[in-house]
Design brief:
By secondary structure, this protein is α/β, with parallel strands linked by helices. The chain folds into two domains: 117 residues, Aspartate Aminotransferase, domain 1 (Alpha-Beta Complex), CATH 3.90.1150.10; 220 residues, Aspartate Aminotransferase, domain 2 (3-Layer(aba) Sandwich), CATH 3.40.640.10. The protein is built from eleven helices and 13 strands. It has a seven-stranded mixed β-sheet, sandwiched between helices. A four-stranded antiparallel β-sheet has the order 9-10-13-12, covered by helices on one side. Strands 1-11 form a two-stranded parallel ribbon. The longest helix is centred in the last third of the chain and has 23 residues. The chain is globular and about 60 Å long.
Length: 367
């Protein structure tokens, strides 16, 4: 039935719109695979979420609170920010899409970095804007390059910090330097999906009150372990969040998602524990893999970007790992065809993936 077509034509900028392809989650013919392709917290959410989920599921016949009041209040208390300037979304992806939809139109330009999150480009294209890719320096965002790429058509700059899929980040000093240089009618969006994995880092929240053209986004999908519930939030100037709220769907976040996110924030020790566990496992695994001769930048997130000698070698190792039941993320769509992204699991999984890669490198015919 693939040839069954209508005569209904989309808007011109949707012709040849690329499709976002997520990481693989299954291996044909294999059970009990280890999925290391989506940067999920494999430890799962906090205990309060696990124990309370069934109880709050009883009320799923009710529509969720369209104002997200309880969750916004909890976020505001935790970060000492104004809840009236917070917007909640179905993951931070929705907020990224809303930003482009509300503040861009045809011929506007949206800047993103060379190996930045693909949704920046796709969201710009969906709004009819032109995505502008800015070269990085050794897989790290360059403030100078970003500034040099600004034109009179630039409306939004997207910057993931730490960045996915590279794991690199720039300092708050560099971010403030960029904000001091760019015109105040250009919106800088700091995507802090992985900010909780960095010690003593607020993802730019403290700069929002200083710069009205700064907007930060966060998610509950990563360190909080709620990827399946799709909850994110953003914070910025009141006029920006007002516009976003006027355009978003009224019941965009499920009642379960809202409540479980609220419970996650109530467990103040959970994030610290998960950060420490991740960083210990990540750094030990990186050091072990460096010993195999792999090239790996220092990561500030819950994954490592493994760099190989060629795309052929990366593909061979990817196939070998799949034979052993491990799924990593191919990142050629990010301009990194010689790389694989490896999500950090628990101590046991990190040890297993290291031993499996060591076995692969011992067999010269495979690499």
């Amino acid at each position: 039935m693939e040839n069954f077509r209508s005569n209904i034509k989309p808007l011109s900028h949707f012709y040849n719109m690329p499709l976002y392809k997520s990481g693989e989650s299954t291996i044909l013919g294999k059970d009990n695979v280890v999925k290391l392709s989506a940067n999920e917290n494999m430890n799962g959410p906090c205990n309060e979420v696990v124990t309370q989920l069934a109880y709050y599921s009883k009320n799923i016949f009710e529509y969720p609170d369209s104002d997200h009041f309880a969750l916004r209040r909890k976020i505001g208390e935790l970060h000492d920010i104004d809840p009236n300037r917070i917007i909640c979304g179905a993951g931070s992806d929705e907020i990224i899409q809303l930003l482009c939809r509300c503040f861009c139109e045809n011929n506007d330009e949206v800047i993103y970095t060379e190996h930045g999150f693909l949704m920046y480009k796709l969201s710009a294209l969906a709004a009819g804007a032109r995505p502008i890719k800015i070269e990085e320096n050794n897989r790290t965002a360059s403030v100078e390059n970003i500034y040099a790429g600004i034109t009179n058509r630039t409306k939004i700059i997207f910057l993931a910090n730490p960045n996915n899929p590279t794991g690199t980040m720039i300092s708050e000093i560099e971010i403030e330097k960029l904000l001091n240089k760019i015109p105040n009618n250009i919106l800088l969006v700091l995507d802090g999906a992985y900010a909780e994995y960095v010690n003593s880092f607020d993802g730019g929240i403290s700069l929002v009150n200083k710069f009205a053209n700064l907007f930060v986004t966060r998610t509950f999908s990563k360190i909080f372990g709620l990827g399946g519930l799709r909850v994110g939030w953003g914070y910025g100037a009141k006029d920006i969040t007002d516009v976003l709220n006027s355009v978003r769907s009224p019941f965009n976040v499920s009642s379960l998602g809202l409540k479980m996110a609220e419970l996650s924030l109530a467990d103040v020790n959970f994030v610290n524990e998960q950060r420490d566990l991740n960083n210990v496992n990540r750094d030990k695994l990186r050091n072990n893999l460096l010993g195999l001769g792999l090239k790996i930048d220092q990561s500030f997130a819950n994954f490592l970007l493994l760099r190989f000698e060629s795309e052929e070698q990366a593909n061979k190792i990817d196939l070998f790992l799949k034979e052993k039941g491990f799924i990593l993320r191919k990142v050629s769509s990010y301009g990194l065809p010689k790389c694989l992204r490896l999500s950090i699991g628990n101590k046991e999984i990190c040890e297993k993936i290291y031993l499996t890669l060591a076995e692969c490198f011992e067999d010269n015919d495979r690499v």
